[in-house]
């Protein structure tokens, strides 16, 4: 739909003279600032389809041709594809939002299991020792030798008078066990997953520049910017394929519950292993595409070192995030 152009040729955004449809200085369209409802809707549809078209063409290259988008972007071919930052933000937003949008099919089964776990908690607290116990019937639960915080504080005060004060870390453990002892394994798992899912995008955002920095160590004559673009494309690929896998897995769960068909769920289980292999292959292929001057074997050697170091860094960040999740559980 054609939008009504202004009679005046001065750009409302920057004041430059507009020769044709768009301002040659800032790019703003020289149309009337107040539009009808249908003009507004047509603008919305145009913007959406333009973005959608760019998104799917970009994702197509992202999946089929490892490293292609990074090379194209660094060579200045940027208008036909989504910018790496926008691509990553959009995909990560959808990926981390998806679990909250797709309903879980096993609600009734979990409710029955939760009721059973709740009925067994008292007996577990009576027989178990330590702050964290695994029960074969129920699962992982927090237990405590103290009935409440007042009893813990009284014991700590008595121990301090005897000259054998409770260590701060031990006191924290005892107190944390008291806070969590009334939760069933299902409740603990839900709380932990909720906290972890909120913290993981932030941890991943911190990890991205570290990933690029490790690459720079093995390619010192290049620029950090180049490796930052590669990192954004690589993690956009990982998140997008994981998002698709999550959708397939959720559909498989619903098909098993509603239709009794578990074929898609079984296929999804095999796909999870294939995804890991694909992620490793994709990294090597993309790394070689961007650094062809190194040759195949040198590229593989550098890629192996980069991948291994980043895997250790990711494991460290994952452990830190798990520890923070445990600390924040209450």
Any descriptors?
single chain; extended; mainly alpha
Description of the structure:
The chain has 330 residues and is mainly alpha-helical. The chain has three domains: 1-31, no CATH class; 64-105 and 187-328, no CATH class; 108-185, no CATH class. Helices cover 70% and strands 2% of the residues. It starts with 36 loop residues before the first helix and ends with a helix. The mean pLDDT is 82.
Rounded to an integer in angstroms, the radius of gyration calculated over CA atoms is: 28 Å
The pLDDT mean sits at: 82
Q: What is the overall shape?
A: extended
Task: Enumerate the strands of the largest sheet in spatial order, edge to edge or round the barrel.
Answer: 1-2
Q: Report, as a whole number of angstroms, the end-to-end distance.
A: 56 Å
Structural class, by secondary structure, is mainly alpha
Characterize the largest beta sheet: strand count, sense, and whether it forms a barrel.
Answer: 2 strands, antiparallel
Number of structural domains: 3
Order of helices and strands: HHHHEEHHHHHH
Weakly predicted, low-confidence segments? none
Task: Please state roughly what percent of the residues sit in beta strands, choosing from under 5%, 5-15%, 15-25%, 25-35%, 35-45% or over 45%.
Answer: under 5%
Count of runs of 4 or more consecutive helical residues: 10
Helix content: over 70%
According to DSSP, the number of beta strands is 2
């Amino acid at each position: 739909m054609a939008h009504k152009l202004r009679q005046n040729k001065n750009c409302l955004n920057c004041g430059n003279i507009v020769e044709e449809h768009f301002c040659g200085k800032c790019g703003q369209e020289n149309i009337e600032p107040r539009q009808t409802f249908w003009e507004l809707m047509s603008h919305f549809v145009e913007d959406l389809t333009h973005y959608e078209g760019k998104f799917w063409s970009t994702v197509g290259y992202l999946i089929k041709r490892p490293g292609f988008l990074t090379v194209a972007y660094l060579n200045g071919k940027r208008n036909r594809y989504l910018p790496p930052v926008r691509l990553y933000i959009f995909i990560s937003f959808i990926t981390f939002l998806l679990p909250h949008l797709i309903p879980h099919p096993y609600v009734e089964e979990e409710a029955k299991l939760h009721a059973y776990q709740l009925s067994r908690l008292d007996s577990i607290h009576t027989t178990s020792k330590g702050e964290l116990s695994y029960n074969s019937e129920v699962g992982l639960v927090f237990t405590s030798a103290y009935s409440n915080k007042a009893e813990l504080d009284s014991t700590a005060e008595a121990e301090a008078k005897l000259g054998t004060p409770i260590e701060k870390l031990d006191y924290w453990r005892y107190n944390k066990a008291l806070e969590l002892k009334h939760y069933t394994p299902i409740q603990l798992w839900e709380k932990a997953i909720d906290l972890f899912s909120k913290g993981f995008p932030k941890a991943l955002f911190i990890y991205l520049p570290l990933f690029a920095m490790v690459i720079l160590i093995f390619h010192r004559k290049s620029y950090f910017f180049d490796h930052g673009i590669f990192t954004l494309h690589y993690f956009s690929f990982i998140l997008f394929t994981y998002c698709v896998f999550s959708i397939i897995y959720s559909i498989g769960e619903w098909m098993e519950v509603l239709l009794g068909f578990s074929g898609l769920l079984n296929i999804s289980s095999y796909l999870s292993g294939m995804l890991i292999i694909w992620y490793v292959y994709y990294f090597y292929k993309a790394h070689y595409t961007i650094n062809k001057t190194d040759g195949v074997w040198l590229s593989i050697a550098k890629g192996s070192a980069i991948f291994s170091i980043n895997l250790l860094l990711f494991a460290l960040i994952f452990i830190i995030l798990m520890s923070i999740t445990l600390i924040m559980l209450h």
